Amino acid sequence: MIMEKKIEYYDVVVIGGGPAGMTAALYAGRARLKTLLIEKSLIGGMATYTSEIENYPGFPDPIDGIALMKLFDKQFRRFGVDVKLTDVRSVSIECNAKVVSTFRCDYHAKAVVVSTGNKPRLTGGKNEEKFLNDKGISFCATCDAARNTDKRVMIIGSGDAAIEEGMFLSKFAREVIVSVIHDEGIMDANKVAQEKAMANHRMTFMWNTVVDSFEGDEMLKRVVLKNVKTGEMVPVDVDGCFLFIGYVPNTKIFEGFLDMTNRGYIKTNEDMETNQEGVYAVGDCREKTLRQVATAVGDGAIAGFIAEKYVEEIEYVQKEIFEAKGLVMAFVYNAVDGVDREYLSRVEQIQREYRDKVQLRRIDVYKSDRIACRLSYTATPSLIFMKEGVVLENITDLSNLDKKVAEVIAARG
Amino acid sequence: MAERTLDCLGEACPIPLVKAQKAMDEMAVGDVLIVNIDHSCAMKNLPDWARSAGHNVEIEEVGEGEWDIIIEKAK
Fold first, then answer.
1. Of the candidates A245, A268, A290, which is a domain's last residue?
2. Nearest CA of chain B to the CA of A239: how many Å?
3. Where would you tag: which of A103, A209, A276, A376 has the fewest CB atoms within 10 A of its CB?
4. Annotated catalytic residue: which of B5, B8, B13, B23?
5. Which residues does A55 contact at the CB level (< 8 Å), separation at least 6?
6. Chain A residues near residue B18 by CB distance under 8 angstroms
7. Quick one: DSSP state of residue A22?
8. Distance CA A116, CA A123 (A)
């Protein structure tokens, strides 16, 4: 069945509903921009996989990841943001509009915020694929803790997620075996978590090990670990296995469109701008040092704010310059330059003489030259004449200005 | 193009996923399966599984904490 694809128009489309995306949507929505947030499954993203978040400021007692994300959800929807639960297939740029395509709809946006986050990394062990999707390998302790009550489970990894979620699981499971790649006593988790884990009588550690294979019938029954020092294979019977060995970014659909690191993280500047104008990247999918709810929120706020400025700017240019009636002269200058300012008063004086024939637009490039770039400016100061959206003259030599303006008005006015 | 609804309200993981997988096996390409769920864990594994199996998936929020997962069998 081939359905006609719908087209809808937005100021800002946010791809991904984790804390970074929700914050960007909150800022955009609060700035009265028509905003859409698209999430492929559960609002909250990877934060909903965390049983307890105890380092998000403002919540002095540990809070469950799902509960915290519900609060985020409630807050951003207050600002009139639309939400669609579906996956984005591609993003492209067509005639100045960014097109975000889903299975049923093409969303045309002025600005796009990419907050597609991370997904858990797999071990690459044999038969791994066979036991994904609830067949014994899990990435979410909060989701699967209850059903592991009195069971024997294995954790792969030794970072914060591995150790903290392992401790959470130990409240349910009778035994939690942690496979750690490092030498005895060495873990990647924070010291507090390490100390608690070492004192937890339900947790045991298998040092210098990695997964070699997963075994079982329908369900996972055994994990075979390999000792990285001795090469020895150690089969361990388990009821479930949780992988916490880091993450990989969800950025595949942006390959060739956005600049990325060799690990697939999107490169941005500190304003969250990517190599594509009007496309921002925030949160875990972005190249940065610390991936936490606290840093995601900062990224989202910046992108929401910068997107607002960007949308304002393109609307201004569209309405006041490209769609203006009659002849327009745009004076492009740098407001901190004394010479430029002198020329500005000169231009204003001349325009007053011809006020019935030409409109003046002042375009200051001091903070950003993006508006000027839309007019293909080449230097400051310069005077660009436009009519019906087309650049007619670009005057960079401003000597004999009166004469030049008079000539253009006579010829084109 | 048949449409079938699976009521999984009140059911925790992995039951909605297992039921949906079984139902999809019995359906033809182009058919649509609607799974009603109210456990957030199913929001994590069901859409992911269906997309990785190559089907088209959309989700409707029916109410707070209640969703309809709409799966169009694509192969």
1. A245
2. 14
3. A376
4. B13
5. A292, A294
6. 134
7. H
8. 22
- Structural domain of A49: 6-119+248-317
Residues A154 and A232 in one domain: yes
Q: What is the ipTM of this complex?
A: 0.91
- Is residue B13 annotated as a catalytic residue, yes or no? yes
- Give me the residue label for tokens 């269906």: B50
- Cβ neighbors of A334 (< 8 A, separation 6 or more) are A340, A364, A365, A366, A380, A381
Interface test with A, best of B39, B40, B46, B73 (most A CBs within 10 A): B40
Q: Which of B18, B44, B51 lies at the smallest CB-CB distance from A87?
A: B51
Q: Please give the Cα distance from A40 to A232 (Å, whole number).
A: 42
Is A1 in Cβ contact with B56 (below 8 Å)? Answer: no
Contact list, B44 vs chain A (CB under 8 Å): 41-42, 48-49, 140, 143
Give how many domains chain B has, as a whole number: 1
413 residues of chain A, pLDDT tens digit each: 456 789 999 999 999 999 999 999 999 999 999 999 999 999 999 999 888 898 999 999 999 999 999 999 999 999 999 999 999 999 998 867 899 999 889 999 999 999 999 999 999 999 999 999 888 999 988 888 888 999 999 999 999 999 999 999 999 999 999 999 999 999 999 999 999 999 999 999 999 999 999 999 989 999 999 999 999 999 999 999 999 999 999 999 999 999 999 999 999 999 999 999 999 999 999 999 999 999 999 999 999 999 999 999 889 888 998 899 999 999 999 999 999 999 999 999 999 999 999 999 999 999 878 888 888 899 999 999 999 989 999 999 999 999 999 999 998 87
